[in-house]
Amino acid sequence: MKLFQGIVCVMHKFNTDMKKSLYIMLSLLVLLTGITAFKINTDQGNGKQTKAGKAETIKWLTMEEAEAKIKKEPRKIFVDVYTDWCGWCKKMDKDTFSDPEIAAYVNKHYYAVKLDAEGKKPITVRGHTYTFKPEYKSHELALALLNGQMSYPTTVYLDEQMKMLSPVPGYLDKGTFTKIIRYFGENHHKTMTWQEYEKKK
Known about the structure:
The chain is of the alpha/beta class. It has helices at residues 2-45, 63-72, 87-97, 100-109, 140-145, 174-185, 194-200; strands spanning 60-61, 76-82, 110-116, 123-125, 128-130, 132-133, 138-139, 154-158, 164-169.
C-alpha cells in the first residue's frame, strides 16, 4: 500500500512538473512570436529587408522608358551617368543607391535612369536621336546632360517636362543624396536656393 501511495505521489509530482514545463515553454513561445512579429513590422516600416520579402530597390529605366512613363504619369527624372570603369560609380551603386529608404523615395517621386556615358546604342528622346561620338569617346546624350563636363559619376535632375534642373557631379553618400532628391522631389528648388535649403535642414 505504501509503495502504491509512493508511486502515486511520484506520478503527481511528475505531472505537476510537466505542466509547469509546458507552461514555461508555451510562455516563451508566445514571447518569441511577439518579438518576431514586432521586428518584422518595424523592419517593414523602415523599408528594410524582411522575412516577408526582399528589400526595395531602385527601379532603373532607360531614357526611352522614362519618357514613355512621364507622358502617362508626370514625375521628375534623375539620371545616373556612369561608366563601366568608374570606381566611384560602383561605390555609389553599392553604398547609396542600394539603400532601401532611398530606393523607396526615388521610386515614389522619380523615374530613375541609368545612362552609360560611353554606351554605343542610339537613344531617341523627344524626337531627337543621340548617338555615340567617337571623337569625344562619349555618348551624345551624356554630353548634352553634362554640358560637356564629363565627370563620373554625375547625377542629373530633370523636371516633369524633361527640362534640366541641375547636374550634380561627384560621388554622393546617402545623407547628401537624400537631401538632393528631397530638394528637387519636394519642389524646394522653386522657393529657395540650395544654400538656403541646406541651412534650413
